[in-house]
Amino acid sequence: MLGTLTRYLRLMGYDTLSANALSPGNPREDTVLLSIAASDGRLLLTRDAELARRGGERAIYLSSEDLTEQVRHLAAIGLVVPSLRFDRCSLCNTPLRPAKKREVEGADYAPKERQGLSFYWCPLCRRLYWEGSHTRRIRRQIRDAVPDLRAD
């Protein structure tokens, strides 16, 4: 599974689906994934060489388990431009919108010092996002993956 990569791609602004959203134990999971990729015009990223072979040009095989290597590979083949955009919820893929004051104030996990921070809200899973130490860590990982590109 590529769950961590899925979350990072969402934070980079890419519309992604994850096999984790499928019913567990589905013996036809590979066929379902290939069908979704074909019908939605998506690319299938996988660590399963046989699934990538079956997917043909709709599938990308990622040999590494390392997130940095995965991002580096996708950037090298021109599929992603590594940058942190806060366009999508990292959990559910819903487009984010600027958070309203009441949403920020209602999130007990939001930082107490809010001056100068921008907040974003997922209207589906009701999750609050902001630029903090976690985003600095993610930016650093993206920058490490592809040092010659900006990780805004």
UniProtKB/TrEMBL annotation:
Pfam entry (one): Mut7-C
Name of this chain's protein: Mut7-C RNAse domain-containing protein
Source species of the chain: Methanofollis liminatans DSM 4140
Domain Mut7-C RNAse: 1-141
